[in-house]
Design goal:
The chain contains 15 helices and 20 strands. With 485 residues, it is of the alpha/beta class. The strands form 5 sheets. A 7-stranded mixed sheet has the order 14-15-16-13-12-17-18, sandwiched between helices. A 6-stranded mixed sheet has the order 9-8-7-10-11-19, with helices on both faces. β10, α8 and β11 form a beta-alpha-beta unit. The protein starts with 10 loop residues before the first strand and ends in a 9-residue tail after the last strand. The mean pLDDT is 97. Nicotinamide-adenine-dinucleotide (NAD) binds next to α7 and α8.
Length: 485
């Protein structure tokens, strides 16, 4: 199969595509059919060194450019991404299996938002002046150096941009390793950045599995690591980065709560639960997969949920009408189906779906369990598939304690018409991103990230600048130096 946007080689280093077939081949599988659509080759030690050397030697000249100049390039790249949204979305759909209806609205566009936002911010990045009597201190906001980005497979274009845009705005260079499951899209991001005028070596993409990621994290040339991935991988990468005292951003997994109170607008709550469980076939880190519904409205909620799930258009993700596609891989599908079996065995009530679909590719039905108990495995572990757990409650204090009783702290949502309760609940959530009468919005202007085991650091917003730059203080004495001897 070929398509117009297919990248021409496995890696993108020093401003151009680079191939090295000595690396382990990685098949790229189209999730809607199971067909192989491309092969990339894992980075060999020579490719890893080439990418890091390119980044290291290009970075200081990039940091010395004015923020306005750097920002102009990022904003030009944002424009190119928007112009090519269709082709990029087709590629994203081949890479991930997510419906084109989603990718055309979310992926390259949110990548472009990040490039535009941080492009605009680049010229505003400054230190400060601190007067100390006659003497004074000024601070310089400086780049960290070479940043490594390591991506998950659910949002390959977005992740490549959410990490790249702030890193580059601050004057860093980046070596990005996409997930081995979705290696294609980040290459297009690199290609577009260079076309927009990015100097060679500032944004490089190399392929590989966890071993390539691990080699990058421990390399002395690397100053910062930003990972999007699971908690177990995060623990390994965080520890490896700590050994080299490297800066980190960790965007990890979640098992987020969504609380639906008795006064909630049921249509909106059901809509939020659908967005927070079935968008991208449930493969979204911030999903609200523990849906606590007040006992008095539980059956009404489940009825409307089932009715609306009946209208899902499941099928070929390249067709614009399709709004529920396959899972990313056979492995991920098996993991999700395994959890469905666990849910049944543990005695949860299966109210919708639960099966693999009888067609090619990696499709399963949107699935809903009701009467889920807090200690069931499907209520405790991240499934990362279209499996919703509905739990009952009747008291706010009790549901708050239960909602927070998790190792994760990525996101949380509340549906209620009671204004005070909405803000009280949001304040009490132990999570990095909360939603009131909404779910899963992620505008570039708002900080995004997790608390507890869901991560450290924030992406997007002004806050991301703190994770891609460091302050240098310069003390300036205006008079003589007074020394004791
Ligand atoms: P994963 O942890 O298996 O892999 C993530 C990336 O880390 C991949 O590129 C992988 O090759 C790399 N990797 C694996 N072992 C490594 C090691 N020892 N050293 C360095 N790199 C290593 O995750 P996944 O299955 O690709 O993605 C799904 C997970 O990502 C879910 O847990 C999901 O919640 C999380 N996620 C989080 C966010 C967020 O922003 N918080 C966003 C998307 C996905």
């Amino acid at each position: 199969m070929s398509y117009p946007t297919q990248p021409t080689a496995s890696h993108f280093i020093n401003g151009q595509y680079v191939e090295d077939t000595a690396g382990t081949p990685i098949d790229v599988i189209y999730p809607a059919t199971g067909e192989k659509i491309a092969t990339v080759y894992s980075a060999t030690p020579a490719i890893i060194a080439q990418a890091l050397d390119a980044a290291k030697s290009a970075q200081s000249a990039w940091a010395k450019m004015s923020g306005t100049e750097r920002g102009r390039i990022l904003r030009r790249a944002a424009d190119l991404m928007r112009e090519r949204n269709h082709d990029l979305s087709v590629l994203e759909t081949f890479d991930t299996g997510k419906p084109y209806q989603e990718t055309i609205a979310v992926d390259a566009t949110s990548g472009a938002d990040a490039l535009e936002y941080f492009g605009g911010m680049a010229a505003t990045l400054t230190g400060e002046h601190i007067q100390l009597g006659e003497d004074w201190v000024y601070t310089r906001r400086e780049a960290l150096g070479v940043c490594v980005g390591i991506g998950a497979w659910n949002y390959p274009t977005q992740i490549a941009c959410w990490k790249g845009a702030p890193a580059l705005a601050c004057g860093n260079a980046m070596v990005f390793k996409p997930s081995e499951t979705t290696p294609l899209c980040a290459l297009k991001v690199a290609e577009i950045l260079v076309e927009a005028g990015l100097p060679a070596g500032i944004y490089n993409v190399i392929q590989g599995m966890g071993d390539v990621g691990a080699a990058l994290v421990t390399d002395d040339r690397v100053d910062k690591v930003s990972l999007t991935g699971s908690v177990p991988t995060g623990k390994k990468v965080y520890a490896a980065a700590a050994a080299g005292i490297k800066h980190v951003t960790m965007e990890l997994g979640g098992k987020s709560p969504m609380i639906v109170f008795e006064d909630a607008d049921i249509e909106n709550a059901v809509g939020g639960a659908i967005l927070g469980n079935f968008y991208s076939s449930g493969q979204v880190c911030s999903n609200g997969t523990r849906v606590f519904v007040h006992k008095s409205i539980k059956e009404a909620f489940l009825k409307r949920l089932s009715e609306r799930l009946d209208t899902a258009v499941i099928g070929d993700p390249q067709i614009e009408e399709t709004n529920f596609g396959p899972m990313v891989s056979e492995r991920q599908l098996e993991i999700a189906l395994g959890y469905v079996e666990k849910g049944k065995t543990e005695g949860a009530r299966l109210v919708y779906g639960g099966n693999r679909l009888d067609r090619g590719g990696f499709y399963m039905q949107p699935t809903v369990f009701a009467d889920v108990k807090d200690d069931m495995v499907i209520a405790r572990e991240e499934i990362f598939g279209p499996v919703m757990a509905v739990l009952d409650f009747d008291d706010e204090d009790d549901v708050m304690t239960r909602a927070n009783d998790t190792e994760f702290g990525l996101a949380a949502g509340v549906f209620t018409k009671d204004l005070s309760r909405a803000h009280r609940v949001a304040a009490n959530f132990e999570a990095g991103t909360c939603f009131i009468n909404s779910y899963n919005d992620a505008p570039v202007e708002a900080p995004f990230g997790g608390s507890k085991n869901s991560g450290v650091g924030r992406e997007n917003s002004k806050a991301a600048i703190n994770y891609y730059s460091q302050l240098k203080s310069v003390y300036v004495r205006m008079g003589d130096v007074e020394a004791p001897f």
